[in-house]
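Question:
When you can, review this sequence-structure pair and walk me through the tokens.
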Amino acid sequence: MKIVILSASPNSSATKSIIAAGEKRKHEMTVLDPAYLYLLISDAVNGYDRVYDGYNKTYKPERIKLTDIDAVISRIGSNLQYGCSALHHLKYNLGIFTTQSPHGLLNAADKLISLQKISAAKIRVPKTVMANDPVHLNWMLEQIGGLPAIAKMLQGSQGIGVIPLYSENQTIATLQSFYKQKVNLLLQQMIDTGTNAKDIRAIVIDSKVVVAMERTSENKNDVRANLSLGGSGKKIQLSKEDEEICIKAANACSLTCAGVDIMKDKDGKTFVIEVNGNYGYKVEEITKTDISTPLIEYCEKGVKEDKKATENNKSYSNQILLDMANSLLM
């Protein structure tokens, strides 16, 4: 099978791990940077849309044929909007199996939209409030239980754009500063874990939790437990209930493969903090758990199911329309 990794980081630990897992199962692995792809939309009604690779700037872009790709694994971080356009073209216009949906990645990248979708799926999230013009600050703080609280930028990862708020003056200054720069922030309840900040990253692949890792902040005054900020991690076993919560949260964002972050308060209640479409691979290093082979197995399963659907004379275009319609309803 020919599997493409859609990524701008061919030398990252994630890409290397996925390539190794694919080659171990005798697949042909290729990395394509979505930034160099040309997406051609045809004027024909019978499906002549195409994709070209323009990485080599010396020669004209080279057409990528349908026979060149059986499945696509998306690892899109930077340039997300265009990356998702390329993923959409491959998945819906060319009918190639992909491990993630473009709308799912965009949902997860926006903290407000993802929280809205997760909450609408009847999953507990921290109390959150956001306004376009936050003039009623005291009222906003009352809605989330007062200070201390968390301010978050709508986009951001690895703890970047997450600001702990402890005093009214700090909160006012922070909000004024960001809103003057036309950067929207949401205010969120600070979950009391009882000790140093702790959260759990669960890796969901093919709507199954393959591993979970507890992350703990090394600084008792820092509510962010991200490994990139110096936190430590260890492998843990989630309860069946928490596994179901993580899977349901990923599905609510239209993702079957995701990193789902949860926190448990001092009373044991579980809160979904966010869903990550481009989850980090530190979890594989720390837990000693292979999270790439399940991705390859998902590709094998997905391609097989797509072929079976075609052999059964099911309309692939109708399946695509149904998939897109369901994503809009979620």
About this structure: The chain has ten helices and 16 strands. Residues 129-189 form a domain with the Dna Ligase; domain 1 fold (CATH 3.30.1490.20).
